[in-house]
Amino acid sequence: MRSELTRLPHAKVLLKNRWPQFIIMALMLAGFLFAILSGLAGTPVGNANFGIVFVWIAWWAVLILVAVPFFGRGWCAICPIPLPGEWLQRGAILELPRRKPRWLNLRWPKVFRNIWLQNLSFTLLALFSVVILTTPKTTAILLAVLMFLALGTSLVFERRAFCRYICPVGGFIGLYAQVSPLELRAKDKSVCATCKGKPCYNGSEAGYGCPWQVFPGGLAKNTYCGLCMECLRTCPSDNIAIKVRPLGTELAQPSHRMDEAFKAFIMLGAAMIYAGVLLGPWSPLKSAAYSVGTTAWFGYAIAFLALLFGLLPGLFWLAIRIGQRISKNLLPTHHALTTFATALIPLGLAFWVAFSLSFVLTNASYIVSSLSDPFGWGWNLFGTAAVVWQPYLTNLLAPLQTIVLVGGSFWSARVAQKASQNASISSIPTVVYCALVTLVMAGLLL
Amino acid sequence: MRRSEIYSRVLITAGLLVALSAPFVARALGSRSAVEIHARMAGAGGWMPDVLQAKVGVPLHLRLTSDDVTHGFAIGQSDLAAVDVVPGKMTDLTLIFDRPGTFTFYCTRWCGPDHWRMRGTIQVTGGKAIDPQPASAPLYLQLGLDIDAPHPAAVTPDGAPSAQRGAALAGRLSPQYLTPGYYRSHSPAQVFTELRVDPALHSLSDADLWDLVAYIWQSNTTQAGLAAGQKLFAQNCAACHGETGSGNGVFAGDVKALNGKTPANFADSISMLGASPALLQGKILRGGMGTGMPSWGPILTDEQTWEIIGYLYTFQFKENTR
């Protein structure tokens, strides 16, 4: 039950041609630099600064409400962060590969060939998020650091090591891309098996080898495919397709990786903490999260880390053990845990969508005013600078959030049931776990 | 190099240049010699810059913005209506000075415990001084009052004095007691003591004499003056001294924490009836006294100061406000 987008002749031409993608990336790059500049030179008032408003409200809304659920890693396909580094690495933007790499081109260290670094980078970001989200200068510095980190990584290591192993955003996009209805796959894997030279991975005169260090012929999951379309250009047999599929089909095949399981816990916990700190009525909690370095903040940080790395995984482990006890199952617990952790993927995405609905609808009017006065310098480019703050669609917010949360927990229960059939472990404790955390999240949001 | 590669590099470079330079180019073209003033809470920088230069008759364009909370901008001893200075927004203001001198601008919004420290000066040069004769020293200086010393009243009334009852007895009062000069230089307790030894008033009770004191205070104020004093008090004093004058305003706790002293309590009859209007004038104009009391000299006009003082005594002579 899949339909191939790449069968449409126009779609295929647009995707294979480097120009459309490059133009979008170049525009994004200009916007990205503009956001850094406004953070540094514009007003220090967050809600009046383009950097804050366009990164954390506009971009975030598009990312979590549209791009991730419907296009998976669609954002990665047009993200400007790797562009400057890749230009230097390849010595060209659109020109086809030279024979010799110009820089170190090292392989990424084996110990880090997982997403633990991304787990760490996201956790750090989330820990300081209240400051980052409200202070234009900090946001600007963060954006600049990400770009320079990506650039430096491109010069030392081969391909897009930053995107694949470091980017704090890329980790969770990959995790949640598994539910998206879009996938890039080989049409016929036997063609790939006999293909000489594997140009999709090694590169050819038609294009570069997969920047995401993935062999497209073996792709079964969306997690690490950045949708950069390079293999579409290099495949000599026209064997790569972009397909539309039913939502979440690959959740039935757990990856059995602890780093991905922890990514799910981190995202689940961070969504709950964000909901409590950013949307909750508790001002001491807000100020503790904001006052980095104080005793109160250390208390907040310890509670934050304890929830993400202790309580949520600990209770989940307990649920799995109970499930094993019920079903008298002797599978190693870590194997059982990573199997059932896929149930947390639709749930986590639902948490983030529900949180972001509130965050974005509350703050969207800042986009309108900041568009006319991006630096807070008193401009009025489009006549909308004086638009006063107002939340949008307030009467739809709670029903929408309820639908998303209830839908997410049902979906996760279904995934747990499927996992239960495969592993012959009772899914009841996992379903109860999901229902309980959903209730907590609903209590925080509604 | 292929043509497409050249185009792509040109595109990226152009995008980069536009993104980074357009704001500054637009800003340079758009500015019209306005002075941009950023307001922050006193502890974080106050007014930046806080010293401005201007010439008599030449418009001074200001662009005001706040980097933290809402502030207000006003100029002391002027009729200019205060404007709000809102975070992330620009407020344009044009000033024209008709005389030279040093003017104080200050924050009119209660932005924090150090709100009153948010001040700056505008030095206006050129033109002719309108008022050639030198201003006389304020009354408290002429009288040589020590405004830092305690000033307890030697006597206080048992009940609330009534200016209305006092008005009925006013015919027996020598006119000298009703002059502004006498009123301003004596505390209510001093006036009571002098009335007590006045042979013409020998037959009156202590309560009668306190009613006369209240009448003297009332006759030196007007309803309009008291209303103006009340408004000024609400704008400038109530945050520390409280709406009821009891020294319990919203910032009273912060003032105590900073200075170890609570704001003065105008409802306390011992200190209030022991203070002359001239003494209160000194406290208001100079400030200090080891408390967090700001100096209001550069902000309030002479008339405004006396209006506030007149209003302060209504916390003792409550009937006078009616």
Could you characterize the architecture of this molecule?
The complex is a heterodimer of chains A (446) and B (322). Chain A is an all-alpha fold. Chain A contains 21 helices and three strands. Chain A has helices at residues 9-16, 18-41, 50-71, 74-78, 82-90, 116-127, 129-134, 136-156, 161-166, 168-176, 189-194, 199-202, 230-234, 258-279, 283-290, 295-327, 333-341, 344-363, 365-372, 394-423, 428-445, and strands at residues 3-4, 182-186, 240-244. A three-stranded antiparallel sheet of chain A has the order 1-3-2, with no helix packed on it. In chain A, helix 2 packs antiparallel against helix 3, helix 16 (295-327) packs across helix 17 (333-341) and helix 17 (333-341) runs antiparallel to helix 20. The two termini of chain A are 37 Å apart. The mean pLDDT of chain A is 92. Chain B has 322 residues and is of the alpha+beta class. Chain B folds into two domains: 35-125, Immunoglobulin-like (Sandwich); 139-315, Cytochrome Bc1 Complex, Chain D, domain 2. Chain B is built from twelve helices and nine strands. Chain B has helices at 3-30, 139-142, 163-169, 180-185, 188-196, 206-219, 223-236, 238-241, 252-259, 269-272, 277-286, 302-312, and strands at residues 35-39, 47-48, 51-55, 60-66, 71-75, 83-85, 91-95, 101-106, 119-125. Chain B has a five-stranded mixed sheet with strand order 3-9-8-5-6, with no helix packed on it. A four-stranded mixed sheet of chain B has the order 2-1-4-7, with no helix packed on it. In chain B, a hairpin with a 7-residue loop joins strand 1 and strand 2 (47-48). Chain B is elongated and about 115 Å long. The model of chain B has no long low-confidence stretch (mean pLDDT 89). The chains are: A mainly alpha (446), B alpha+beta (322). At the A-B interface, helix 2 of A face helix 1 and strand 4 of B.
